[in-house]
Amino acid sequence: GAEVVFSVDCTKLKDYFLPEKREFDCIYFNFPHCGRKAGVVKNRELLARFFHSSAEVLTEEGEVHVALCNGQGGTPADQPRREWHNSWQIVAVAAGAGFILSNVHAFKAETIHGYKCTGYRSQDKPFCVEGALNHIFTRSMPLPYFKPMICEIELESRKVSFQVPEVLVDKIDRGFLELNSNHPVRTVKEKLTAELSQAFPLQNIDYCLSLLHQGHLNGVCHSNIFWIILNPEETPSTEEMSNGLANAVLFSHVDFCRGTDKNGWVNVQEGCHISKQYYLRPSLLPYAQAIIQRGAFLPGTLHVLSGPVFRKCLITPYSMPVFHEMVFVCAVNRGTENSCIQMLVNNIKTSIRSLHQTVSGFKLNINLQEEASFETTELNDFVAFESQLSRIQYFICMEVDASGSCEKGSCVGIIRTAHYELVSSELVVVFASLNLDLLAMLICGIPDWRMLWTSDTRFLCQFPRGKLRLFKSFSLYPPSYVHDISFWVPDGEQFDEVAFHTIARQVSGEMVVSIQLIDCFQQSETGRKSLCYRLTFQSCDKALSCREVAEMQLLFRKEINQCLRVTLR
Asked: Looking at residues 135-158, what average pLDDT do you find?
C-alpha cells in the first residue's frame, strides 16, 4: 500500500511530490552522508539543505528523524562526545530551518524488520552502527517580533494608557493567575493557599492592586525600576508609537529628558513637561503596608496578595524581570510574633515539601535561615531587591544540592516584621513574601525561568488543570552562540550595567543567557575606560540560528551606542 519513489534529491523534496501530497507526518533520513571522504563541513551543508527542504513538505505537527553514527551529532547524548568543531552540529544546523531537537534515543537496527546497513563510503559494504542515535526534530515556534503595545488601566478614577516597555510586551498581561488558568504558577499558589487556610483564617485581596505605583521606595535604586511617565491628556496613538513619536510622553529604558547620577538615581531635568511619574510595581509590599496603615484588616487573619511584579535586573540564571509574587500579611499581638512566624513558616514548609514530594517522589529539605547567617553577596535577584525595601529577618530556602547547602537561586521567600503605631501599639505585623515562579521551577524541575513564559503549547499541555508534574523539555541541547563586544565608556559617567543588560534582553527577546565582563582597560594618557563583555545567546524553547544571533548582535551594538552613548571599538 505504499508508494515508492526512486532517485529523490533530499534537498529538493517538494519537487518530487504534487502539492496535495506534500503533507508528510514523518520524514526519516538514516545515516545521511555526502559520500566518499566528505568532511564535516560538507555533511553539515547537506543536513542544512535537507532540513530546509523538509520544512516545505512536513505537517505542522510532523517529525523529522535523522539517524547518525556515534559522535557525529555533537550533542551530549553522544558518548564519547566529539569536540563541537569536529561534529556535524546537527542541532544548530536544524535550527537554521526552524527545527528543535525534541527527542533522541538509541538507533537499534535489529528492531527494524528487513533493515540492512550498507553503503560505507559509497561502497557496497556495511558500516558500524554501534552507539548510533536517532534524533527526532519538530517544528519550533517562530522567533517573536514585538510591536509597540499600549496598556489601558484605570488609575485614580481615570482611564489612562501607557506604552509597555518593549522587554515586557509578551509578559504584561498573560493572566497566569486567573481562574481559568492551568499554569503551574497558579496551581502552586492555589495549593499553598488551600494548605494555609487550614491553619489560619484567610482573606484574598488581589482585586485592588494596580499595575502602576507612585511614590518613593526607600533604599531602592531607581535603575532597577521600569519607569512610566503618563500624560492622560496627550496619550499617543499606536501609529504614533510605531513612528517613535511617543518619547516625550512615555519612558522606557532611556529618556532624553532624564539623567542618572552615580548611584543610579534618576533625575528629572528642567524642561520636561510631565504630569506625573509612575513605575510598574516592583513589589507587592507597599500595597500590603497600605492595607495595614488604613486599618483595612482583621488581626489574626492571614491576608494574601498575589500578582506579577516587574524589576530591571542583571542577566543571571535566576534573575527575572517579571515574576509572580505572593505576599502574606498578618497582624498579631506584640510578643506573639515569633510564634506566628514559626507557625506560618512551618505551614509553608510543609506545603512546599508535600508538593515537591508528590511531583518528584523524594523528600525536600527546606530551611529557615536568619539574616546574619545568609551570605548577601550570593542572593538571587528576588531577595537582593527585597533587601533594599526593608530589613529581612529570615530567608526560606530549598536545599537543591546533595551537600544540603542553599545554592544561589534556591531562596524562594523571605520573612520580615514591622511595628505600625498607626494600627495599634499592641500589634506587630508579620510579612512573608514568596516567589511563585521560582517555586514552580524548583517543584516541577523547570530548568529555565523563560520556559514559564513560552507561548509553545507543548509546555502548558504537560500541566492539566490543578496538576503539578515533572516538566519534560521539548527542546533538547539547544545550541549556544558567543559574541564579544567592546566599547569606550563616556568620560566622567558611571556605566549603567543594569541598563546594558536590559537592552540585551530587549533586542534579543530574552535570548541572552549570560553577560560576562572579560576585560577592562584604561588609557594612562587620557584616562579613557574601555570595557569588553562576552554575550552568550541561547533559546530554551525556540530554534535559534547563528544568522539570527548575528542580527541581534548588530542591533545590540546600535542600541547601546544610541542609548548609553558608548563608543564602539
From this structure: 88
CA separation, residue 327 to residues 192, 206, 390 (Å) = 12, 10, 15
Question: What are 478-516's pLDDT values in tens digits?
Answer: 999 999 999 999 988 889 999 999 999 999 999 999 999
* Cell numbers placing 272: 520636561
End position of a domain, from candidates 461, 496, 513: 461
pLDDT at residue number 296: 64
What Cα–Cα distance (Å) separates residue 267 from each residue in 183, 223, 246, 490? Answer: 40, 11, 20, 18
Question: If you average pLDDT over every residue of the chain, what do you get?
Answer: 82
Residues 450 and 487 in one domain: no
Residues 450, 437: Cα–Cα separation, whole Å: 10
- 441 and 293, same structural domain? yes
Q: Is residue 246 part of a domain?
A: no
Residue 237 counted as domain residue: no
Most confident among 80-89, 108-117, 219-228 (mean pLDDT):
80-89
The helix-helix angle for 546-563 and 497-508 (nearest 10°) equals 140
- Judge if 316 and 444 occupy the same domain: yes
If DSSP codes are grouped into helix, strand and coil, which group holds residue 453?
Answer: helix
HSE toward the beta carbon, residue 548, CA cutoff 13 A: 24
Quickly list DSSP for 88-100: --HHHHHHTTTEE
Ranked by mean pLDDT, the top range of 297-311, 396-410, 555-569 is 555-569
Note the pLDDT tens digit of each residue in 343-356: 888 888 888 888 88
Interstrand relation of 366-370 and 227-230 (parallel, antiparallel or unpaired): unpaired
**Do residues 57 and 117 share a domain?**
yes
Establish if 414 belongs to a structural domain.
yes
Are 445 and 299 contained in the same domain?
yes
The reply to whether 183 and 289 lie within a common domain is yes
CATH number of residue 338's parent domain: 3.30.930.10
Least confident of 209-223, 225-239, 496-510: 225-239
Give me the CATH number covering residue 550.
Answer: 3.30.70.380
The yes-or-no verdict on residue 449 having pLDDT over 70 is yes
Among 308-317, 353-362, 439-448, which stretch is predicted with the lowest mean pLDDT? Answer: 353-362
Residue at a domain's end among 428, 461, 494: 461
Q: Do 496 and 364 fall within a single domain? A: no
Which residues are bridge partners to 310 per DSSP? Answer: 322
Q: Write out the H or E segment, with its range, that includes residue 328.
A: strand 322-333
Please write the tens of the pLDDT for every residue from 550-560: 999 999 999 99
Tell me: pLDDT of 260 over 60.
no
Domain extent, residue 428, equals 176-209+282-461
- Per-residue model confidence (pLDDT) at position 389: 59
Whether 368 and 450 map to the same domain: the answer is yes
The CA-based dihedral angle spanning residues 199, 201, 206, 208, taken in that order and rounded to the nearest 10 degrees: -160
Element (H, E) at 429: strand 427-435
Domain count, the chain: 3
C-beta separation of 236 from 249 below 8 A: yes
The values of phi and psi at residue 207, to 5°, are -65, -20
Query: How far is the C-alpha of 503 from the C-alpha of 511, rounded, in Å?
Result: 12
- List Cα–Cα distances, 30 to 10, 43, 132, 135, 136, in angstroms: 12, 13, 10, 10, 12
